[in-house]
């Protein structure tokens, strides 16, 4: 696959997770970010472990179809690996990451990868949506919205989450996270994330969930969310949880 000109946060995460699906430009950006912030591998391991616990919790509720936004690289404990009985549609807007994902999932009949702008679910190919998330709009599904909130302003994020709430069937569950104000103490690292990057305080994030109802676990530092043992000692860079569209 041709070397992209620009790094991607998703492929930098693959590098930090010890994966093999990134390019030299991603490694250079990951190393520069670590130079400005500090080591990142443990933070992203803990974030991926949270994804695993959240997706398993949703699958344990009987949900067997997942739609993933801003999916990044579909390996290293990603949705179809932690919920192997489920069907999964991964979506992203980055063409290089989408091609990588499509190559990785080429032999799978349970997981697919396509273009999808989270802010407009109409951009998802309906054939892919109905194949991998059967009963979309009629049966409860899992919506995975991780690593994305930081790239959307408040109005866009609130509208997007509300449109998703409207689109899914009652009983559906959202896995969501947001970036804390951790990078405020690391201005050089913050600058590397670009001017559109948004950090949020918990009180600022809560109203953006709109009608989605967080479970009693709350929206907490991801290492603490239903931790199976002592939480990993990582900075509270991400807060997250799951939230439901209640069944009638
Ligand atoms: C920080 S990465 C997170 C990747 C993955 N969710 C994870 O946790 O490892 C953010 C991803 O969101 C994608 N992205 C950014 N804006 C998006 C949008 N409007 N809709 C869908 N994906 C988007 C980027 O291309 C990138 O792959």
TrEMBL record:
Keywords: Methyltransferase, Transferase. One of its GO terms (biological process) is methylation. The keyword Methyltransferase applies. One of its GO terms (molecular function) is methyltransferase activity. InterPro entries: SAM-dependent_MTases_sf (IPR029063), SAM_dep_MeTrfase_SAV2177_type (IPR006764). It holds the Pfam family Methyltransf_19. The keyword Aminoacyl-tRNA synthetase does not apply. This is S-adenosyl methyltransferase.
């Amino acid at each position: 696959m041709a070397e992209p000109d620009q790094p991607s946060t998703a492929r930098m995460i693959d590098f930090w997770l010890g994966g093999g699906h990134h390019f030299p430009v991603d490694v250079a950006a990951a190393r520069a970010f670590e130079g400005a912030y500090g080591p990142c591998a443990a933070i992203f391991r803990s974030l991926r472990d949270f994804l695993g616990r959240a997706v398993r919790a949703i699958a344990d509720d009987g949900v067997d179809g997942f739609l993933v936004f801003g999916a990044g690289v579909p390996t290293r404990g990603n949705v179809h690996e932690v919920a192997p009985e489920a069907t999964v549609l991964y979506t992203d807007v980055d063409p290089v990451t989408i091609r990588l994902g499509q190559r990785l999932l080429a032999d799978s009949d349970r997981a697919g990868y396509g273009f999808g702008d989270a802010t407009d679910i109409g951009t998802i190919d309906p054939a892919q949506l109905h194949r991998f998330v059967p009963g979309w709009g009629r049966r409860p599904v899992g919506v995975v919205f991780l690593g994305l909130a930081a790239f959307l302003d408040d109005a866009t994020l609130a509208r997007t989450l509300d449109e998703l709430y409207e689109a899914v069937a009652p009983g559906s569950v959202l896995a969501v996270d947001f970036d804390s104000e951790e990078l405020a103490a690391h201005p050089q690292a913050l600058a590397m994330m670009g001017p559109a990057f948004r950090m949020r305080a918990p009180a600022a994030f809560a109203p953006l969930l709109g009608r989605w109802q967080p479970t009693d676990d709350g929206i907490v530092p991801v290492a603490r969310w239903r931790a199976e043992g002592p939480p990993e000692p990582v900075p509270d860079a991400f807060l997250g949880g799951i939230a439901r569209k209640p069944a009638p």
